[in-house]
## 1
Amino acid sequence: MIFWQILVDGFAISALYALGATGFTLIFGVSGVLNLSHGAIMVAAAVGAWAAAGELHVGPYAAALIGIAVGMLLAFATYFITVRPIQRSGRIAESEKEIFILTATLLWGIIVQETIAYLFTNNAKTVLPIVDGTVMFLGVRTPTNEFFTAAVCWLAIGALWLLVNKTQRGKAVLAASMNPRGVTLLGIELSGIYLTVWAVYGLLAGIAGILLGMFLGVSSYSVGPLTASAFSIVVLGGLGSVSGSLIAAYVVGYLETLTAYLISPAYRTIPALLLLVVVMYVRPQGLFGRR
Amino acid sequence: MQATFASRLFWVAVAVLAAGAVVPSFASGYVLGLLTVAFYTAVFAMSWDLLFGFAGEVNFGPTFLIGLGAYTAGILDARFSPGLSLWVCVAAGAAAAVVGGVLLALPALRLRGPYFGLTTLVAVLMLQNFVVVFAGLTGGEIGLAVPDVMSISASTNYWIAFGFMALSGAILYWLSRSPIGLILQASGQDAVQAGALGFNVAKHKLAAFIVSAFFSGLAGALMVFYMGTASVGTFVDLSVGVQVIIAAVLGGRRTVVGAAIGAIFLIGMGELLRPLGELATLIVSVLALLVIMFFPDGFLGMLRGRGAGRG
């Protein structure tokens, strides 16, 4: 009984983690940027959907679309306001651009988070689920929303796989992650590729944020932990490796669910952190990292 | 060029110290209390600058070292209060932070860039979890009350913090301009080449970690006995670490003095804008972002004039 419960619950939460981390790792793989405003963008998308449903009284689908639009808009804002000016700056030494991008995206995340808190207060917000009710599955009473979450996450990840592997644009993105200079030599504008990647990132982060808002609810306090969990999943799987992040998301998701059910919800995040420390010492490039 | 800048930096430091020395003659106890906290934060930021600006190590977890110092001192004092002198607790806090610094340095010598940054982030999260889980020992989320305080007089506390900041600043500044600092800077920028020149990169980086940890832990421990309590929100939380990092970058990296100015500015701004409520953090973040984007060398970089490049 509890075994099935852990299996089902863990699957849904892991799928959500996987979707959240995929966009994050995509950006890093292609442009080497670690976007520390990730959590803020996810929360902003969820709050956007919540506000659209609550204040504009639109239906759940329209609300979700508005939320996704907020996510994409903020992703572009992150790119144009913080990342691109630093990448192009002649006054910051190459070796220091990394820390500047980290600091700037971190500050940008705080700005987004504080704006949300100012406009919509710090209270936790739950986005109205698109599907409600519960079903019996393997003898476990499960909210239908959990299946919906897992299904949407995997659909989105599948669509991303198709985009990257089967379309011209996607192949260019993939090539840029392997050898940016080679791509420019083929006559493809790198800046266009970055725009594509940030658009896809915004889409993925927006969807993940809204699903999270339906599943667990969000508040401006979830910004930090969300960024940290995406960061640790991505490092655990190996920076830049999408399949590694997917596997790592499941490892972390199930570890957390197991701990929460079998030991105590208070210890939820500890085993995953311990695992991360062990991996950092033993295999610093992550489980499936390239470097 | 380097010499003129060095001397100008020196005069900036002298001006700050002179201003600090005359403040108590007219400022209220409230302002003094605020500055006391700002001075401890300044030491946090200067220690971080030694690791980042000179050794090139991106430490996202300054609060791991600060928290270790603060909680070790606080727990020892809370357990053995009358029997154990406050200063012994402070020394133990600094020692614990040094041990933590060595633990952090071990992966740092093997990992590069973002990977090391993550280790430090995880270290903070682990410490935070530890504090919450072992609430019986640490006071958990409510915080740990310590029976001893350094002094109840605002001006005594001010002078202790001021003296401590001036002394640590002088030591860190001297260290950064000494041959050791130059070797650190070289290994931060190109570890392979520094090694090829015959410098022991690992040894120097380890030393930087130990010094940085020592001052972070010491400042954390002293601040506990100023505040009378240790809590996650003031010593361990990631947002505290973020503030330390922003302070150092805002003031100007690789200057030590700039980090202190940045910290005092941040704390002061936060307080000035307090009447605006929730908007205060927003405005400070926007300001910090603007400075970082348009003046990457921070306040001291502005002083040197635009486009002066790297020192």
## 2
Amino acid sequence: MDHSDEKKRQDGGRFTLELARKSSDFHEFSPFEDDEGLLQIAFYRSLVSTDKVTHFLLPALQQHRDRLQHPEGIREFLPFAEVTQTDEESEAVTKIMEGFVLLRIRSAGGRYLLANLVNSQSGQRQSNDTENESSVIGPKAGFVENLDTNLHLLRQKLPTPRLIIEALTIGSHSKTQVALVYLEGVTNKEYVQTMRQRLQAFDIEALYDTSQLEEILSDDSNTLFPLFLSTERIDRIVYAITSGQVVVFSNGSPYAMAAPANFLGFFASPEDYYMPWVLGSFFRLIRLLSVMFSIFATPMYVAVMTFHYEVIPESILGPLIQSRIHVPFPPVVEVIFLEITIDLLREAGARLPSKIGQTLGIVGGIVIGEASVQAALSSNILLIIVALSALASFTTPNYKMANTIRLLRFPFVLLSAFWGGLGITAGFLLMMGHLIRLKSLGMPYVVPLYPFRKGNLDDSVIRASYQYSYHRNLFLRPLSGFRYRPRSRKEDRDVE
Amino acid sequence: MSGTVKESNQVSGYFTWFLVHAVQTGIGILNYQQKIVHGAEQDAWVSVLFVGVCMHLVVWMMFRLLRMADGGDILSLHRQLFGPIAGTCASGLLFVYCVLFCAGQIRQYGEILHVWVFPDAPLWQSALIIFAVAGYIVSGGFRVITGICLVCVLIPSLILPTLYFPLQYAHWLNLLPLWNHRLEDYAQSAIHSINLYLGPEFLLFFYPFIKNNTKAQKWAHLAVFHSTVIYMVILVGTFVYFNMQQLRHTVWPSLILSKIIRYTIVERFDYIYIFNWLFVIFPGCCISIWAGARILNQTLKLPKKWALWVTLLVMIVAVLWVRSPVRIERLENIIMLFGGTLTFAYIPLLLVIASAVQAVKRRHTARSD
């Protein structure tokens, strides 16, 4: 059965004009009736710019009506940049699918002339604001759903011939164009090669978004942690390319994906680089601390309230007990109820139209929070802890990592409900072991912490001054480690 | 040779520091003061220091020994010196040692959990959760274990400064009079501090997994020195806080010591110590499980996955076997005897044998030339 399926799919790879004619948007006609249909034109109305057909193609043909006998003759006067010729019907149809217009002369038999009149710009959204990864300072423009536009945006930022863009096609039906981008002389060839191989090796029906590739191409597809960094910010991708990462774009997706990624990289926001380094480092530390808080706050509450209430001093224990005195559930049920509520609000906020979503989120949050305390479903103090840890989890600049952090607390809550502090410690060890095990394109995930790279700590937990971080992150094994010449101290004295 | 290790599985030389130190520090730190005080009393620190110096000697011998092994570890050395059958038997004894080492750590930790935190929880639960996590980490290979060792050295180091709190109540005169004991007393204390220092002998197993391993010796010495300093600091801190009579009747002096630490939001700091101690015992468990699985894999040619399962199963049975505190005491003594013999008698003996064999071989080749 598998074999016949495979055969059918392979047959599907051969296209005929007969197949194309079944579609209503396939347009085939002879422009000059009196030639008895000598010249035939065929294209998909949905792919081709009809303006170009009526304003350029047809007038040109009209003008050179006497030279319509040979495909070569037509080719000479067609006013388009991309014109090709083929004898293969299947190839011609594939080209038509890319937005070419087919010109066929009946007397010339099976020779097809194709001119590119693709209409790729319409139907795209006009604004390219970075909606999901917004920043206060720094550029606000992000990628859009069109590959050409994205590459154009990238080239504008990095106008150097060293920026290499390789094109691939992925998806047996979607035929999505995928671009592999790297910086010649900087990016390690091994990563480019690995990425290219993985892209070529897998088979999929349709590619909807770059993020899909993340799971398919990753080294370990059973992990919670994102192993590739996907972002819609141009500056983030420029940073990734210049520091020696490979970037993958796919047509139809506003997300670009950088690899190999390391764990700490997900907590770096482009804004860190636009602020004085002390502030940038401070915010980065705050973000890392808030991750720890958001994972461990509620499990610790559960552990302490279930097993180790001796740990809490008397002065705090009083208010804690008092706030919980009417709650009939064990702490773990209380915590899971509130955490799920927060996740419901988040999920509903993401699905609803933005205008309703915000209002509903705020009103829902306040009403549910306030009412659940009054109804003795949860304690006041827990409400504060849960709200704070939810807030803390949203500080992560990368949306996928933020989701991972949000999910991680549930296993910890369960562990702490069963084994208290021992469960949290054991869970922490398990998480560390898992993180150390992970690899992204073969690079260890928690580098530069393990394996420890002293020289690369200047842009990891903190962001050191540009004066010192003029070396590329060597764990990415770039071909040239030197980024730029730091301002020398002697030149600083420009008083005279 | 089966002993050769791919470079992608090796770790840098300086990780020897973390590996040796992390395996060496273990559950013993919580109660060694009470054990060694029976011999030399307030002078017991001399014995601790002495065993530390001896351990440096053992590390030196181990590196000499490992340089002679074809495959770089003790399993290949056993095969090389004693032939396949006797060599396998000798390695089998080492497997017993791995099981004892791991069981000793986890059983004693389980006892502390039972007494201090979870009086109602059965032992098999805490043993199971620790073994499950350790099994997952060991299945990740030696690089993952090394990373965990790094984590497990750094995090417990953070609570070391809390020793400042008991020092506020120090009676420095407790350390006097100096050196008023007989040699037998010092020896008794020294024998009881052997358990503290056990761990570097796992170097005999993971030596081929270290890059440029001949140059890693300084890191191993640094690790032993690091442990010695920590033991000395904690010992002195304990001696100046407790008086001798009190110390004799305190089962876990380090935990009692931590009880006086108090912050505005944390009342019982000993709980934090206890849960933090999982980090301290964990590297020892991981390395001994790994070494046990490696022995089964290399000598009996069991597939790696099965070797790990069998080792874990044997160790869980060993932990659950030891039911009463009296048996824990006996287990400790067995480990002391076994480990002491292995470190201070077997390794020197093996060095003598290996050197002799090498000398004979060299003379033989010289003559044939």
